[in-house]
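Lab channel / #folding
Pinned by the channel admin:
"Please post every new chain as: sequence first, then the structure tokens as a reply. Keep commentary short and put observations after the output so the thread stays searchable."

First post following the new format, from NK:
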Amino acid sequence: MNDTNKDIERKPDIDPGEISSEDEARKTINSLRKAIRYHDYRYYVKDDPIISDAEYDQLMQTLEKLEEEYPGLRTEDSPTQKVGGEPNEELGLVDHPEPMLSLKSVSLEQDVRNFDETCRKELDTDDPVYICEPKYDGLAVEIIYENGRLTQASTRGDGQTGEDITDNIKTIGELPLHLLKESEKDVPETLVIRGEVFIPKNEFEEMNKQRAEEDKKTFANPRNAASGSLRQLDPKVTAERPLHIYIFQMLSPQDHGFKSHWKVLQSLPKWGLKVNEELNKKCSNIDEVIEAYKEFSEAREDLPYEIDGMVCKINKFEHQQALGVRSNNPRWALAWKFPPKRETSKINKIKIQVGRTGKLTPVAQLEPVNIAGVTMTRASLHNQHEIDEKDIRVGDTVLVERAGDVIPQVVKPIKDERDGSEEKFSMPEECPVCGAEVVMSDDKKQTHCPNINCEAQVLERLKHFVSKDAMDIEGLGEKRIKKLLDHDLISQPQDLYSITEDELKKLDDIAEKTAQNLLKEIENSKNKPFDRFLYALGIPHVGNHMSRVLARNFTTINDLEKADKGKLTDIDEIGPEVASAITVFFAEENNLKVIENLMESGLTLENPYSEQKEQPLAGLKFVFTGNLEEWTRDEVKELVEQLGGRATSSVSNETDYVVAGPGAGTKRDDAKEMGVQIIDEEEFKKLID
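Reply from TO:
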């Protein structure tokens, strides 16, 4: 990658509020992806970032919002589809036994109290015990010990696969190569732990001072320095860096006899593993959690290392299992970030955005303001209720903050700055796109355009329906969908399945061959699997992963339509918000009519996850190593899940089969040592036939 692009890529001049078409969105999304990949390259490959973490987060947040608004433009290789950065294959790649998920971040005390209320309600307990730990500003790592010996270490990578840093992490003096055996619990045969590697503030300053004296490039901050140090190809370089580590998690703790996270934290030091015994706190109720946060906040500046918040976790592992996980983060933990920095700006204008579901959102257009290195030009005002409650007016000087250090928010107007020229704002009575009379809820928190034929809604819904991850109808981009709408050939998704070749040829850009190819694509889409159809419907909060979760638990669309909120929340990965969105969607008669019409169009909706499907691998655990001829690694893992089995990335005594292809390495050796049956790809095929 050419470093001369850095001035262009540093921070694209992008205002999502000004985007009004898919063509504009596509250009913006491409620009953002290019910028993010460039900065990934600078950070992960060059170890030489040129923007702050907050600036990078803003780029990613903007991309995520645009991909939500234009789901047809989302691609599998988008930076938003990764938990972390792209692993560096030069270091060697390692599959995590379980995904390294991120934590949901909050910034308000009320959000934490809401978290507590959800936990108490779903766990049916008055005061669940919480464990509070510092949220370190370092590099998350995973470490595996076999029979007490450190055998593997890896970075987070993309959450599924990380970089092999085994030799480098062995240079950290605080991390034992062999575990001690002074605990009342025996050292597990296989122990997988996770921790944070960091460089203390004073040692970072001393290291940078020495590098400057040696005419070497200095590091931007301690976290980048720690990341770059661990990802060196030469461990001797890593050994020269002042790296430290705190352990904060054990995988499969119940398999090792632990019932609580606090007991894990108490036991790890007896094996020689370092935890933060000084700051880690056990809290009996939410009030103690809030007090712990205040103590962390007050101690922040005096700590020898950087922290940017506090992590709060449910203590009992049975409670963690009961709460489950979302697609990207666990429901039993959150990260409470420290207050963001604030600056003042002026609201020049308030514009209205119309989303795919018809929701109208007011957005403040700000005079550019720099907050912690990022220039802000717009901020969501959410709804009329918030505008009235805060008494925000056009022309106001306002206090702006970066919520979570990323998203700009208007905190309040500075009324002393008013000169009388400010104007009160009211949501429009008519939709700015189609002119229909809008509907506002009594509490003024929701404003919708009720016109299901509103161009903003119809176009976006159709684009989502035909997108690659949904029904995947190639040849139907925004431009062509607009033409079909303009010629009154379609208005709803089901209309696609009744359109004729003669009708298509009426469009000036469609000849006979193109029309035939498009009709073939439409016909082929009738055979898309059930989970893809669920995603195509555009149910709020139901993305690719959640659609697969639903397909695993409901055989047909009729089964899902009948499910109430209670049945949905009984599923591990579905919380109250998602369950409510699903039940509301299927309670809407118009939505049911659309589904009925689609089914009458001939959709088959085979469910590859159905429990009624034959399960020849039920209960079996597989590890795949080496190269496979017929499947990619992701494809074979999905196949095993569909057939009732489970594919893991490391060999243990619970593994039933290791499928070894050409190039198989240490996993095959591990299987031999443990007496696990080793088969080749042909033998695996016989198992599933």
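NK: The radius of gyration is 27 Å.
TO: also worth noting, The first strand starts at residue 93 and ends at 95.
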